[in-house]
Amino acid sequence: RQLLLAGAAGDGRLPAGRAELAPRFRWRGMLLDSGRHLQDVPTILRLVDQLALYGFNVLHWHLTEDQGWRLEVPGHPALTEVGAWRTGPDGRPYGGYYTAGQVREVVAYAAARFVTVVPEIELPGHCKAALAAYPELSCTGGPFAVETQWGIHADVFCAGNDAVFALLGDVFDHVAGLFPAAYVHIGGDEVPKDRWLACPRCRARLAAEGLADVHDLQGWFVRRAGSLLQDRGRRLIGWDEILEGGLPPGATVQSWRGTAGAVAAVEAGHDAVVSPTSDAYFDYDAGQLPLEQVLAFDPVPAGLAPAAAARILGGALNLWTEYVPQERIDRHLYPRVAAMAEALGAPAGPKQLAAFLARLAVHAAWWPRLGITPGPASRPLRLEAARTADGDYAVRADLDASARAHLGGLDPRVRMAAVPRPEAWQAARPPEEQPALPDAAWSATDRWRGPLEAPMVVLAQLLVRGSDGELQPYGAPAAVELEPSLAAGRPVACAAPPSTRYPGHGEHPLTDGARGGRDFADGRWVGFEAADLDATIDLGAPTTVAEVSLRAIQDANAWIFLPRQVRFYGSPDGRRWDDLGTADHQVADREQQKVIREFTAAGREQVRWVRVVAENLGGCPPWHPGKGQPCWLFVDEIRVR
Prior knowledge:
This protein is globular. The longest helix is centred in the middle third of the chain and has 18 residues, at about 215-230. The protein has an eight-stranded parallel barrel, surrounded by four helices. Strands 19-21-26-23-24 form a five-stranded antiparallel β-sheet, with no helix packed on it. It contains 17 helices and 27 strands. The protein is α/β, with parallel strands linked by helices and about 650 residues long.
């Protein structure tokens, strides 16, 4: 099919020939998380077609989570009537589930394309959706709600309650009837033990089974689940935490916390699949996991003896969907999925990036015909912005560590553009999704310097030399927004200092004119943990002020929330303060996507000192896994017009 898609004639004809394919690994997989966001069946079938096109042979289907139980199970209707639905940010139910008929359709469609569907049923943790349906299966008895927030949650299946294993037996009966795959994934990761420590039934189980501690109890739980699967003719596979407390016979380990779990498994005589966060987590932005890193991935850890290395079944890309609803899947998979196909299918040894990019260009030409909209391959550049001594601004582009390590042989160059900020520019969108600039705006340079008289955007694009010798763009552009301000370069006195972890770049990060992007850790945001921002700026002389503004970011998954409100004050003498106004917002704290909001107030004549007070939420909301614990406030720039 690749040959047909790439054919220049377009008439369906191919030259006579012979192709012999021998992929290096037996397990060439993709995890699709349907627990956080449900994908409709046509989308999953489309993904199966794409996996087959690129030689993947395993669809690891993550069907149960804290945020949703997605598999209809006969005899246990509450699993889907209750467990499949959570409260959305707008207060309405959000979720859904797959019927047995839909699952059979996906499994058959995949089998016809030589893709095996391996289901995942999470245990003993990541099960709040199941506990919301059947709270008696917990250690405390609940009640519970299906989780809205990602993370690790304290409530897990009660290891001392035999009713848990009766439910799991029924679930595995149904799973074995729907999925002919030899494997069933049981998760087994991120299991907090606090509830077990406090539970009389779990302590009784410890004593009855002669177990030393709750870590052994997790091993016992996993082994019992393994026995249930073995009775149904299935093999257990789980994340590398199932190594804690001892593996059941025949278990396979999927190593995600680096490769140490895979090494321990194969050296103990078990099989392993390798999908570490460093190389295989495609929910990560291309700035965290660039294409060049994926291409260099080798599932076989260095130093393994040949017999142990032979137990590495292969690898997988993992697409967790906390931040990846259905409409964004393509942007996270492409073009990196092609690099993972190469890493899992090609013979052992270093991969030649230049040759790969040349072949990738052929594929990219026909992706639009398949309705595929790719995301960035990489974010190879970082920008440093600073205000100069004479009041101008200077921006310099440089390669990040990954690009420096992998792209040096491709003769990388940089081009930059500095333009008035387009009206359509939206701070919450990444640079590659912003309005395109005309070619005339770009110049071959890695530095820009100039005055700042109006809001500007400075962009930088990396170019690499292709196999034909021509320079071509690689990766997403880097961007920084610059804002003129009467407070530019003025010192800021904060009643409580920012966190030493997130102080911002430069001497005066709250008045340096550079706005933060979507990443709160980009150095342009300033973080306050469990503290308000209370900042005072001396403008140097009495000034007519038209407006004062402050921006803040919300990322609930990182415990960062918008301020409750922002209060603005002005003073002619630093002693008598006039109230300029209060600004608030209507963004729900349950909002799971990153949000950037600007808070503004009108100014007045003859203001020399400006004071801005942004009120930290204080503690995480009751619904959040960090309930009551200190949360963060992140702000990026106090602007005075």
